[in-house]
Specification:
Elements: H1 2-14, H2 17-24, H3 26-40, H4 44-57, H5 64-96, H6 100-113, H7 116-128, H8 135-143, H9 148-172
Length: 174
């Protein structure tokens, strides 16, 4: 993760962000931000580089509001795909062995034993404020059979919020 951040820092040191935005254009910057967020959100290792990229791109003269919303939508797409993959992994694991059954039951009891408003608040705070990848959280929800419909709106609002926070923080340093 540190090497990725150092790589981004060196890249933007030798090619200023404003020059990069001028070369690819503002509209293409938004497309690049969406693609970076969609691809970068798939892995815990690329999530921090995505955060650094959103902060850096916000220096280039683009609208932080538009960049944050578009970046958040990309994060939402990648998080949704990750959740779907984990649901399928759960199904495969459940078919292959019963030793995982105990873990699934414990996760289910823990998630469903907590009041819904508390789960929603914890989800939003983790997704929107904590600068860590959502993979572990989404894996727990998927493995405990937590319905996507129950938290999809929190996932969307949280992903857009974290992207907005990053772009406005990045713009404040320019």
């Amino acid at each position: 993760i540190v090497l990725i951040l150092i790589g981004w820092a060196l890249f933007f040191h030798f090619l200023p962000v404003s020059e990069l935005v001028d070369r690819i254009g503002i509209q293409n910057t938004y497309v690049a931000a969406f693609l970076l967020a969609t691809i970068g959100g798939f892995s815990s290792f690329t999530g921090t580089s995505l955060y650094a990229a959103l902060i850096a791109l916000s220096h280039g003269g683009v609208s932080p509001l538009a960049l944050g919303v578009i970046g958040g939508m990309g994060l939402f797409v990648s998080d949704s795909i990750f959740y779907l993959v984990m649901v399928n992994v759960r199904t495969l694991i459940a078919r292959s062995t019963t030793s995982w059954d105990r873990l699934f039951r414990r996760l289910w009891k823990w998630v469903y034993g907590t009041p819904a408003w508390m789960v929603y608040l914890a989800l939003f705070v983790y997704i929107a404020v904590v600068p860590l990848p959502n993979d572990v959280l989404l894996a727990v929800l998927a493995l405990s059979s937590y319905s996507y419909r129950q938290f999809v709106w929190i996932l969307f609002i949280g992903d857009v919020t974290v992207a907005l926070l990053l772009t406005y923080i990045g713009q404040s340093f320019s």
